[in-house]
Specification:
Strand content: over 45%
Structural class: mainly beta
Number of domains: 1
Distance between the termini: 29 Å
Order of helices and strands: EEEEEEE
Number of strands: 7
Strand order of the largest sheet: 2-5-7-6
Length: 93
């Protein structure tokens, strides 16, 4: 069954992992009304879980993806009087 699920993320200036069903399609990143930044993704609810890498960068900060990854833009959020840009780190095979 397909559904849209929410995945909270942290606002750290580093790469973090989120667990999502395999082949989840990331739709957007926004701040929910309680001040929690979240990623929403379209998922197949029966799929096994996998980890995805998420990177968050403040405006003006250097973008990096690690030695074997590339950055795929998800969106920009404003929170705590700052602006953050959220990317998925996709590993290059």
């Amino acid at each position: 069954m397909k559904s849209v699920w929410k995945f909270p993320i942290g606002i750290q200036r580093m790469i973090q992992e989120i667990e999502v069903p395999k082949d989840a399609k990331i739709l957007t990143v926004q701040v929910q009304n309680n001040g929690m930044p979240c990623i929403w993704a379209e998922v197949e609810t029966e799929n096994k879980p996998e980890y995805r890498l998420i990177a968050v960068f403040g405006t003006g900060n250097e973008l990096f993806s690690g030695a074997d990854g590339k950055l795929v833009y998800i969106g920009t959020i404003q929170i705590y009087d700052e602006v953050f840009h959220v990317y998925e780190v996709v590993m290059i095979q």
